C-alpha cells in the first residue's frame, strides 16, 4: 500500500508507490469496499424512490438511521457490522455530495460541464475506495504500518514522510489491483512560501503535439508520447485478453496484465507532468497558458495524440500549484489567433495550416517560428508581465494609429526584424 500526504483543499497529492496487504487484509478491504458500495447504492435508490413517488428527499440523518443503524439489525444487511461504521457514514456523505453537485450543476451554480445524476456503483468498477476520518481511530506511527479499524496493521511503502498529522485517509484499489493510501493534511502557507520564493519571471506556454510545451523564450520541451511508445506491448496484452474465456481465472490474469500496462503509461505521464509543472511554477511568478478546447480536439483524427499528451491534467496541476505557492496563472482565450498574429508588430495574417511551421510577417518582415510566436502571443494575450519587485502586472494595450493598418500596438519582443 502506498502512502502520500497533501493538504485538504485544493491540493491532494496522489501516492507514488504501493505495498502488499496480506490475504486476510485484502479480504477485509474487499468487505469494506463492498459495504461502502452497498450503502452508497441504497442511498441513491432511496432518493430515486422518493422522487418517483413525489415525496421529499430523505435527509442525511434519516438515511443514516434507515440504511446503517436499522439495516445492521436485519438479516439481509447484518454483514454491515463487519466493517467500521465510519466507512459507511463517509459513503453516505459521498452520496449527499454527489447529489449536491448534481443540483448545483442543474442550477448553473457549479462551474464546468453539466453533471448527471449519481449512478449506482458496481463491484466491477475500476476504482474502489473507502475513507477513514479521525474519529475512526486509525493510526500511523512514523514510517511504520497503517493501522485501520477492523482491517489491521497494513504494511506501507511510503513515498514520502508525512509532514504533519493527517485528518483523514482514503484507501484506494485501482484497476491494476494496487492499493494506495492518500492522506489529507493541512499545510503551512509560510512553509510553502519558503519553498517557492518570489520570482521575477513570467512565461507564456504554447502546448502542442510535436513538442509538448513551447515557452516564449524559445525553449521547446519534447513530447514523450508515453502511449505511442507502449502501443506494441499494449496491443499484445489486449490480444491475449481477447482470447481468454469470459469468467475464467486466466481472463482475470490477462485483464490485470492489460490494466498494469495502462497504469505504467499513466504513471509515467503523471510524473512527467508533475516535474514540468513544478519546474515552471518554481521559476516563474506569472504563467500564461492557452485555454484549449480539448474535448473538441479529442473528436478529430488527432484524438489519440491529444489524449496521450494529457494537456488537461498538466494545466490542472499548474492551476493548483500556482494557487498553493502564490503564483499568478492566467488562461488566454481559446479564440485568440495566437498562431496568426505576429508577435513583433501585431499584424493579423490569414489562416495557417498545421504543416506551415515558419512564416514571414508581411507587415514587418519578421521570420516567425509558429510555436514560439504562439507562446509569445499567449503571454501577451494573458496580459502577464512581472515588475522588478516580482509582482505580476497587466499592461494595458495601446490602440493602433490610423496609419498602422493591422497593428495591435504590441511592443517588440527580442527586437524588430
Explain what the structure shows.
It is a single chain. This protein is of the alpha/beta class. The protein is 38% helix and 16% strand. The protein has a five-stranded mixed beta sheet with strand order 2-7-8-1-6. A five-stranded mixed beta sheet has the order 11-10-9-12-13, sandwiched between helices. A three-stranded antiparallel beta sheet has the order 3-4-5, with no helix packed on it. Strand 16 (385-386) and strand 17 (392-393) form a beta hairpin. Helix 6 (249-283) crosses helix 9.
Q: What Rg, in angstroms, do the CA atoms define?
A: 26 Å
The main sheet orders its strands as 2-7-8-1-6
Strand count, sense and barrel status of the largest sheet are: 5 strands, mixed
Shape: elongated
Tally of helical runs: 10
Distance between the termini: 58 Å
Unreliable spans are 4-17, 386-417
The pLDDT mean sits at 85
Strand content: 15-25%
Structural class: alpha/beta
Task: Sketch the topology as an H/E string, one letter per element.
Answer: EHHHEEEEEEEHEEEHHEHHHEEEHEE
Q: In total, how many beta strands?
A: 17
Helix content: 25-40%
Features:
417 residues; five-stranded mixed beta sheet; disordered C terminus; single chain; alpha/beta; 17 strands
Secondary-structure blueprint of this entry?
Layout: E1 2-4, H1 23-53, H2 60-69, H3 85-106, E2 128-133, E3 139-140, E4 146-148, E5 152-154, E6 157-158, E7 168-173, E8 179-184, H4 189-195, E9 202-207, E10 211-215, E11 220-222, H5 226-242, H6 249-283, E12 286-290, H7 294-297, H8 303-309, H9 311-324, E13 328-332, E14 358-360, E15 367-369, H10 370-381, E16 385-386, E17 392-393
Parallel strand pairs: 1-6, 1-8, 9-12, 12-13
Antiparallel strand pairs: 2-7, 3-4, 4-5, 7-8, 9-10, 10-11, 14-15, 16-17
Helix pairs in contact: 1-3, 2-3, 5-6, 6-9
